[in-house]
Amino acid sequence: MHQKTYGVMQALWGFYSLQKKHRRFIIGGALGLTASVSLFFGYRWYSFARESEAQKHFIKCVEDFHSVFVQGGNWARVAVSCEQGAFMNKGTYWEPYFYAYQAQALVNDGKLNAAIDALDMTLSLMPYRSPARSAYAIMHALMTLDSVDSTRHEAALQALRKIAHNSSDIASDEALFYLGYYYWQHDKSSEAYGEWQALVKRDQDDRTSSSPWAGLAEPLLEQITVS
């Protein structure tokens, strides 16, 4: 019995001695872990606070935009406000959306090239997985096609085609409609008919939902005579 107890005590003493020997490493490791956890949660708090502040600024940008849109006013002021919001909130989730609203304000102010530059910023900052990205890419393509810089027209048309012909893209129907409309405006009736026909057929094949873009295309299809 005493021999067994002695053996247990010896084992405990050995463990204690090992702890004592490496105590500075154990304490150092514990302190290091505590510091890492503190830094992690500190950063998370800081990041959350930044995103919350950015959201407040973005809401102000949207409110300014909506106010001028409804009541009239100074679009240049809205554009500057949104640009300042983007600058003040660099690196946040909301940064690309400030530029998107700036672009729309600039278009309404008659500054198309500056609006395209703002949308360039939106697309460069927005993650590829964002569901809003394709919608802004379509807007960028349409603005570019409306610009006088014809050297960029083909790239914009290719971007529009890429979204339009990717049926898995959430904005594919919208792109198909505008691609057909572009052809129609440029007296390419056969190409316009082909894009709109594909849009309407896709909508008819999809029994789960109805596309508003196909609804817009149908009456336009009736105006086209294809030989």
Tally of DSSP β-strands = 0
Q: Give start-end ranges of low-pLDDT stretches.
A: 1-41
> Structural class, from helix and strand content?
mainly alpha
Counted up, domains total 2
Report how far apart the termini are: 107 Å
Major sheet size, sense and barrel closure = none
Helix and strand run: HHHHHHHHHH
Q: Report helical residue fraction.
A: over 70%
Query: What's the mean pLDDT score?
Result: 82
Integer-rounded radius of gyration? 30 Å
Helical segment count? 10
Shape: globular
Descriptive account of the structure:
There is one protein chain. By secondary structure, the protein is mostly helical. It has 2 domains: 37-126, no CATH class; 138-227, Serine Threonine Protein Phosphatase 5, Tetratricopeptide repeat (Alpha Horseshoe), CATH 1.25.40. 78% of the residues lie in helices and 0% in strands. It has helices at 2-21, 23-71, 75-88, 95-108, 112-125, 133-146, 153-164, 172-185, 189-205, 212-221. The protein is globular, with a radius of gyration of 30 Å.
Task: Provide the descriptors you would attach to this structure in a database record.
227 residues, mainly alpha, single chain, 10 helices, disordered N terminus, 78% helix, Serine Threonine Protein Phosphatase 5, Tetratricopeptide repeat, globular
